[in-house]
Specification:
Blueprint: H1 2-39, E1 80-81, H2 126-129, E2 147-151, H3 152-156, H4 164-171, H5 175-188, E3 199-201, E4 208-213, E5 218-226, E6 231-238, E7 243-255, E8 259-265, E9 268-272, E10 277-281, E11 285-289, E12 297-308, E13 314-319, E14 331-337, E15 343-350, E16 354-358, H6 360-373, E17 402-407, H7 422-425, H8 432-435, H9 447-453, H10 457-481, E18 490-494, E19 501-505
Parallel strand pairs: 2-3
Antiparallel strand pairs: 1-17, 4-5, 5-6, 6-7, 7-8, 7-9, 8-11, 9-10, 10-12, 11-12, 12-13, 13-14, 14-15, 15-16, 16-17, 18-19
Helix pairs in contact: 4-5, 9-10
Family: Belongs to the OSBP family.
Region (Disordered): 368-392, 463-484
Pfam families: Oxysterol_BP (PF01237)
């Protein structure tokens, strides 16, 4: 019996070895072909695994690929505008020195990074993943070349880029119109993830980030509150006391061979204080395709249900998977309904571009007609190898529709700056005045991120390894002394509206009374 079992085991091991070698050959050939096309020179051999000797270690969740999701964290990443002028000045500003002010007294923000990104053409993700077959995804590390110079705490801050939609919601008297703006905010929060295939740095336990934007009317605080699993908590508030937006994010990751899927665990809660209303939702699933070979591309899919806990109204949005022919690529559609499930209005658009509202009957008539014309192109669940091209007409605007949100093109230098939006470009800027105020745990002070932003890739790699080792040592020391980690600015408790476990703001951060902070850098 044991001999039969051993024989089967050897057979499976041999099959796994053959598959691994075949994948490696495919990845190598594909990578070399890309190299020859990019450089116009003979194909180079794949980078040797010795050059990535530090890619896999005993470190745990600090090595996770959680940044691939972002946020809808996740995140938050887009460069768009309202029809109002509240954000229009950002994209028009030139690079400025610290402390410069606009004529109205609001500080300017930088529109470029100190150094452009490094080319990733000489690197293959497969050269790392081939050594990780059978490992938990949370234990895979990536060389710093695959990062972008932001912490995940900064990346999730990109939710706030379109805060004007929250201010607009607060100003409206109709509950349905307020829900439309909240839905537009939830969709816009994930828009900047498009083409952001760089991985944010995983936050260290106790790391914090703050952002005050007088021009956008908010301030935000976030903290890495857990290491196992990695959980990031945030709390934002309007400077005019018109809203509070808070939540915690725990990306649950799955590796599907050709893609990485990040399911965002955690509830988003938006409170419109002037109306005593609270809205909650969870973000869609984010998927990064072509992890082994090909051009990386991102899609969002799944249902997002936004609930108004005061009125019982709900907005149910469907983020469409692209399908075999790419017809549904980036599409979002759904309905706002009252507590008796009567449809009040329909919403449609693309999370990379825009969101419209229209009468439900008009929308359903359009959908019925559109379905007839597309019946010959039935979708398949097969995963496309290459990113499908979007429809040439992009979003067809149904007559009678109202525009809720529209994206603004990214700055001209975005492609050389990790595909950052104008908002993202300013997240890690640091001046002397700020440095004297923020706590020593703020991720602007992280030496590995700062080095990468400055184009010092070797120093960034060294510092990243040093910080991870320091975190491991601190964890072992706490374990020996049976000391529990205590979060500083957030505490666990039930969400006041859903009752689910959440991380709630403890207060007092903005008093600027920082003492006994951990030495994490």
């Amino acid at each position: 019996m044991f001999s039969v079992r051993n024989l089967k085991l050897e057979h499976e091991q041999e099959k796994n070895k053959i598959l691994s070698e075949a994948l490696e050959t495919l990845a190598t050939e594909h990578h070399e072909l890309e190299q020859s096309l990019v450089k116009g020179s003979p194909p180079l051999s794949i980078i040797s695994e010795e050059q990535f000797y530090d890619a896999v270690s005993d470190s745990e969740s600090e090595k996770s690929l959680s940044g691939f999701e972002t946020t809808a964290a996740y995140s938050l990443e887009d460069s768009m505008d309202s029809k109002d002028t509240i954000t229009s000045s950002v994209s028009e500003e030139k690079v400025c020195g610290s402390g410069e002010s606009l004529s109205n007294g609001i500080k300017k923000h930088r529109t470029s990074l100190p150094s452009p990104m490094f080319s990733r053409n000489d690197f293959s993700i497969w050269s790392i993943l081939r050594k990780c077959i059978g490992m938990e995804l949370s234990k895979i590390t990536m060389p710093v070349i695959f990062n972008e110079p932001l912490s995940f705490l900064q990346r999730l801050t990109e939710y706030m880029e379109h805060t004007y939609l929250i201010h607009k919601a607060s100003s409206l008297s109709s509950t349905t119109e307020r829900m439309q703006c909240v839905a537009a905010f939830a969709v816009s929060a994930v828009a900047s993830q498009w083409e952001r295939t760089g991985k944010p740095f995983n936050p260290l336990l106790g790391e914090t980030y703050e952002l005050i934007r007088d021009d956008l009317g908010f301030r935000l605080l976030s903290e890495q509150v857990s290491h196992h699993p990695p959980i990031s908590a945030f709390y934002a508030e309007g400077l005019n006391n018109d809203f509070v937006f808070h939540g915690s994010i725990y990306p649950k990751l799955k590796f599907w061979g050709k893609s990485v899927e990040a399911e965002p665990k955690g509830t988003m809660t938006l409170e419109l204080l002037e109306h005593s209303e609270a809205y909650t939702w969870t973000n869609p699933t984010c998927c990064v395709h072509n992890i082994i070979v090909g051009k990386l591309w991102i899609e969002q899919y799944g249902n997002v249900e936004i609930t108004n806990h005061k009125t019982g109204e709900k907005c149910v949005l469907s983020f469409k998977p692209c399908g075999l022919f790419g017809k549904e690529l980036h599409k979002v559609e759904g309905y706002i309904q009252d507590k008796s499930k009567k449809k009040l209005c329909a919403l449609y658009g693309k999370w990379t571009e825009c969101l419209y509202s229209v009468d439900p009957a008009t929308f359903e008539a359009y959908k019925k007609n559109d379905k007839k014309s597309a019946e010959e192109k039935k979708s398949s669940k097969q995963e496309p190898d290459e990113m499908p091209l979007p429809d040439s007409e992009s979003v067809y605007v149904i007559p009678g529709s109202i525009l809720l949100w529209k994206i603004t093109p990214r700055p001209p230098n975005s492609a050389q700056m990790y595909n950052f939006t104008s908002f993202a470009m300013a997240l890690n800027e640091l001046d002397k005045e700020m440095e004297s105020v923020i706590p020593k745990t703020d991720c602007r002070l992280r030496p590995d991120i700062r080095a990468m932003e400055n184009g010092e890739i070797d120093l960034a790699s060294e510092e990243k390894k040093r910080l991870e080792e320091k975190q491991r040592t601190a964890r072992k020391n706490r374990s020996k002394s049976e000391e529990d980690w205590k979060t500083r600015w957030f505490h666990q408790g039930p969400n006041p509206y859903t009752g689910t476990q959440d991380w709630l703001y403890s207060g007092n951060y903005w008093d600027r009374n920082y003492f006994n902070l951990p030495d994490i850098y």
